[in-house]
Amino acid sequence: MDHRAHTHTACPPLPLHVCPRDSLCRVACMWHRYMMLKFGVLQYISLQIYHDPEHLIHLFEDIHFMLFFVMLTFLFQACILVIATLRAEEFYMRTEKLLGSAPPLEKTSPADAAAAPAVAQMLATYKAARAQCCTRVCICPRMLWGYREAEAKEELVYSLLRMRFVFPAKVEPGAHPLPPEFDFSTYLRHRCCHEVSHTLHVSPNTWGAIILFLGGILYVPVLEEKYAHIDITVEYVVGLGWALWLYCFAIRAKLGHVLYMLTPPHPLLDGPPKVFDAESAEARLLTGKPDAPPFEALSPTKDGSKHERLFWRGRNGPGHLLFLMRLQMLLTAIILAVMYTWLNAKPEDTYFLLLGMLPVLDVMITSPKSILSLIVMTTSVEMFKSKHKHDIHETLTEVRQLLSLDPPNHTSGTPCLIIPATRPPCSLPLQPTEGGAFESHARR
Length: 444
What we know:
This protein is an all-alpha fold and about 450 residues long. It has 13 helices and 2 strands.
């Protein structure tokens, strides 16, 4: 029986936070509403406030519909988040396979050659892009090769962070060194499932922020119309959509800066080399030891360590990021509900309202993949490594179990890591040369 087919296919179950008290609260609210309608309490209150016995009842019905719409939209975003999790795990395993399947370099230590396959992949991508595209005027191929270069850079960043994780520059007292074949993708998979489960659990602080937001978008227009005599137009609704996009952009920019500060600098991350024919220069890129990441130049403060200083709110930064991501999902659902309500009330604003829906849809569909991956990478490496010893232990235990099912390769004397044999869509197969470097064939 071949156990390789079952490797990395099962995802750890996401813990569901189900509280029976929530169901009892919903039943109690429905019972109170029924009794208030039965005894005419809502009609009396509506008559005193709006001089219409049915106006408040219609408002309750509209709010119930908006809540139902928000619940459906949030459920849809949760599905998008799960899909983003699976794609992130696929990227981790694909890059780990690239690093684990390359032959070892001669006269180099495992620490110095830990990122060599990704460096060779980056060099081959630059070479193929210049040979296939950049020698003539071509728009579409240039965009395609730009995408492939960006993908190769992501793999190189992954390999550099993995190298710092497995072979740290400073070993903590009492810490056991990790084996060179440590499956970094499995560790990130555990971390990814942990972050998703906490993102989907809406905390009381999130509900409080949502109530303040709802009070603002519902009550401020009433004050403007009553006291400032300003009519609410569709521009306000479009502004909500673009404000949400700016909110998401700020989170992405912050996480991108944190990842830059944590990544060891490498010449290929800044662009292609000026000369591709110098074998000695390419060999130095393959086996060269990168410098320390930029965050090492910072000094720890009372608010947090060097790593924690990179986040908003210091040592509470990782939890604050999950709060912001959760809040973004709920704000997206609420703003879509507001736009749908406005569209039903004023269908003549349909075309202009599309200008506000486009950024909201962009946030809902594309942001989970980028933000989730950035949160996992920035909160799982360097100084946060000691905070996730349980995930590291689970990874080591899982690898030992897989190795016990598939015996090691006795011909080479090194253990075999079981990684699914899935080839990336734009991978460059590496072949060792006599000098110990790698040659890469251009993608077709």
